Amino acid sequence: MATMAVEKPLYPAPLMPRDREWTVEDLESLPDDGFRYELIDGTLLVTPAPTFSHQASVVGLVYALRSACPEDMQVFVAPFDYQPNQHRSLQPDLGVIHRSVAPDKNLVVAPLLVIEVLSPSTRRYDATVKRSVYEESGVASYWMFDPEVPSLHVSELVAGQYKEVAKASGAEQIRVERPFPVRLCPAELAKG
Question: What's the rounded Cα separation, in Å, for the pair 131 and 116?
Answer without folding.
Answer: 9
